[in-house]
Automatic annotation (TrEMBL):
Pfam families: ABC_tran (PF00005)
GO molecular function list: ATP binding; ATP hydrolysis activity
Protein name, per record: ABC transporter ATP-binding protein
Keywords for the protein's UniProt record, in alphabetical order: ATP-binding, Nucleotide-binding, Transport
Lineage: Bacteria, Pseudomonadati, Pseudomonadota, Gammaproteobacteria, Oceanospirillales
Assigned protein family: Belongs to the ABC transporter superfamily.
């Protein structure tokens, strides 16, 4: 059943010592678990904050966030429990090997099949021969493949990715983008990606440009990336 995250007239700002800096106001957006979405725009306009608000991890200063499951509103805790995350810095636990990094979110949920499912995902991301390697023994691209597997292993409704190719060379980034979208399609998982990559944004079903003037949507994903 399709799930939706609905932002209604959301506004957000942050406070410095001397003033309040407004990121966006009156922003409305709906994202679906059946589609992929890219959010682009210049640095400093609040793309990462918007991603955290969509994921239910940050509360906007104004407006509302609704998580709808089959047309029925659910608490944001349910959204967080049905979400996976991919970051620019990978955020793998250095003391755990690859397979245990993938299995961790399943173990935290008490899934007794955690290791078997983690092994399946190691194969899906092409790293079955790296199961016992720790993050320090993996390349950047391999670490991001493990992070992708960890994000999808719980079969979430949504995966949120913040600059997932920012630390990778061009060829590795291309491979990672293709893998991420393949996983989204194969698992019917909604994907929301903050990116500066024009190639990545073009692959999404919907592309949105966030600027100081607000949020613009592009049906053909042909948005100019800053």
């Amino acid at each position: 059943m399709t799930k939706h995250i609905i932002l209604g007239s959301v506004g957000h700002h942050f406070q410095t010592e001397n003033r309040v800096i407004s990121l966006f106001q009156g922003l409305s957006l709906t994202v679906s678990s059946a589609e992929t979405n890219a959010i682009v725009g210049p640095s400093g306009v609040g793309k990462s904050s918007l991603l955290l608000i969509l994921a239910g991890l940050e509360t906007p200063q104004s407006g509302n966030v609704v998580f709808s499951d089959g047309g029925v509103a659910q608490p944001l805790l349910a959204l967080r429990q049905q979400s996976g995350f991919i970051f620019q810095q990978f955020h793998l636990l250095p003391e755990l090997d690859a397979i245990n990094n993938i299995a961790l979110p399943l173990k935290l949920k008490g899934d007794k099949s955690a290791m078997e499912k983690a092994e399946e995902w190691l194969c899906k991301v092409g790293l079955e021969n790296r199961a016992k390697h720790k993050p320090s023994q993996l390349s950047g691209g391999e670490q991001q493949r493990i992070a992708i597997a960890r994000a999808f292993v719980t079969e979430p409704a949504f995966v949120f990715a913040d600059e997932p190719t920012g630390n990778l060379d061009e060829k590795t980034a291309k491979d990672i983008v293709e893998l991420m979208f393949e996983c989204s399609d194969a698992n019917q998982t909604g994907l929301v990606v903050v990116t500066h990559s024009k190639a990545l944004s073009k692959m999404a079903d919907h592309c949105y440009e966030l600027s100081q003037q607000g949020l613009l949507g592009y049906k053909d994903s042909s948005v100019k990336v800053a």
